[in-house]
Design goal:
The chain has 7 helices and 16 strands. It has about 270 residues and is of the alpha+beta class. The strands form 5 sheets. A 6-stranded antiparallel sheet has the order 1-10-5-12-3-2. Strands 4-11-6-9 form a 4-stranded antiparallel sheet, with no helix packed on it. Strands 7-8 form a two-stranded antiparallel sheet.
Length: about 270
């Protein structure tokens, strides 16, 4: 059947299909952004690990690496009712259904603190990790703070979703907290994406993207990031299950054991 658009315009859908990403302004009201921020800042302030998902250390143990004090939180929807509620936020799910052309399934959530002095994130593609088949995943990247080049905002490579998933090579540890990096295809170039709190950036799982280091003196660049797949998904990486419908019902998906572009099955628990 033909999927009629629920909330997006034809122009917005065409932009996403052409460039691989789309920014929707003000999806989350100020009070919702503050609720997310407060929850995760309180979680970090407690300094207690959540086994398997969050492992902060104190300043002495961090040894000057601010991201060891403020590590990303993986899969918070698995232990936080608040995070689960925002993972399946109705407006986000409506937009995703327009982008997929079918019902969307929620696969993963993350929270990034990105304090001043934090390293950036080398260029990568999300579906290298999620291994969604058929098709690809889509990210919904919600800005909790204003995000720009100074405080470690994102940059993306428009139209890179039209190419293949690459096998990464080692990144520069002086500027990236992740180990892998992919190349910008010939003829394409990265562009920065500036966001305000409550804005959501949607992008295709094959889009090459990364982030700048946070060189600001006092500005966090916090973000709540979720990944989704279409309802026709038959396989995905084993770390992204179960997936959930917009009503919160779990959906069983087969493990994707394909060796991928590197020739070996990827085994780390999360996209970078």
């Amino acid at each position: 059947m033909t999927w009629g658009l629920k909330v997006l315009s034809e122009e917005q859908k065409q932009q996403f299909d052409r460039e691989g990403f789309l920014v929707i302004k003000d999806i989350f009201r100020r009070e919702l952004v503050e609720e997310i921020k407060r929850y995760f800042m309180d979680l970090q302030a407690k300094g207690e690990p959540v086994p398997g998902y969050f492992h902060p250390v104190g300043e002495a143990e961090a040894g000057g690496d601010i991201l060891r004090m403020y590590p990303r939180v993986m899969h918070p929807h698995r232990f936080s009712a608040m995070a689960f509620r925002y993972l399946i936020h109705p407006t986000v799910m409506d937009i995703l259904e327009d982008l997929f052309g079918e019902e969307a399934l929620a696969a993963q959530s993350m929270f990034y603190y990105k304090p001043p002095g934090a390293k950036g994130q080398a260029l990568h593609q999300d579906n290298f990790y999620l291994k969604v088949e058929p098709g690809t995943c889509i990210a919904a990247w919600t800005a909790i703070d204003a995000a720009d080049e100074e405080n470690g905002g994102l940059f993306l490579v428009p139209e890179s979703q039209l190419g293949d998933i690459q096998c990464p090579h080692p990144s520069d540890p002086a500027v990236s907290f992740t180990r892998e990096e992919v190349n910008v295809p010939e003829g394409l170039r990265p562009v920065p994406v500036a966001l305000q709190p409550g804005d959501v950036l949607f992008f295709n799982g094959s889009v090459i993207h990364g982030s700048y280091p946070n060189t600001s003196a006092d500005r966090f660049r916090r973000a709540f990031i979720c990944h989704y797949a279409g309802a026709s998904t038959s396989k995905a990486g084993k770390y992204y299950k179960p997936m959930f419908t917009r009503e919160g019902a779990p959906v069983a998906i087969e493990d994707n054991t394909d060796a991928g572009p590197c020739g070996t099955e990827y085994t780390t628990a999360g996209p970078h």
